Amino acid sequence: MTFGSDQMNLLSISDLSPQEIGAILDRADDLKARRGDPSARSILAGKSLAAIFEKPSTRTRVSLEVAMTDLGGHTLYLGKNDLQLGRGETLPDTARVLSRFVHGIAARVYDHKTLEELGRHAAVPVINVLSDQEHPCQILADLMTVRERFGRLSGLKVAWIGDGNNVCNSTIIAAAMMGMEIVVASPPGYGPNRKILDHADRLGGGTVVVTDPVKAVSGADVVSTDTWVSMGDEDDAVRRVEAFRRYQVNADLLSHASDGAIVMHCLPAHRGQEITDEVMDGPKSAILDQSENRLHSAKAVLERFLV
Fold this sequence. Notes:
Helix content is 41%, strand content 13%.
């Protein structure tokens, strides 16, 4: 597990500085406000993005492809059966060859080491659009949504309820970078990775990890959750669902949050498991705004790395 500032690639949210995150969010706000402005089509005119997808996707694929189109660029969707990797071509060779054709590579992969190897050998920027370690593009959309609702990030309390997964990891790191308090509530054995917590501490955070979801949500401004069974964890599904039963985000749990709290979920949601219909479709839900902001933040990221 590696971290650090990589100015060419976006593999971890900490490859950006807090100032760069702020600038990307500002740009995303601007692009959202003037969507449909024909002048935006000149931003990435003539640029191509190779989008490698080892995992299925709705929001990530659609947001990337529409973002590139809105900015005048072109996306090549490359599923797991569309490349010669399955026939033995190496990642370094794939990275070197794609670098001769395209201006950037976005990859949605199982193993974060795949991204690191692509990043080492590609001569163009590599963007993490999901790995088992982090999901930085999701977190930028989340931060954008929180800032839209509260007008700020610093000083807010985030409660993460559920699995200490890749989205949780990036949330922890981003909270440390942007001056947000974060409390994670997970069942024993399913909390965030110790190396993620240590990395966040070095960035100035102080993540609190508990097993009591009520304690985590108490006074929270943002209540965030995700599926209990991520892609790749299907073999452990029965045990996970049992372990997470009391970590459902429902009206009773949400009653312990601050009066103006919002609820977030990166989707897809398993309604009736990690979140109830009442909360997901209720007045505190920011989930659809959060989903839409994947598009606008993706535009700002693509402009930052491909121009």
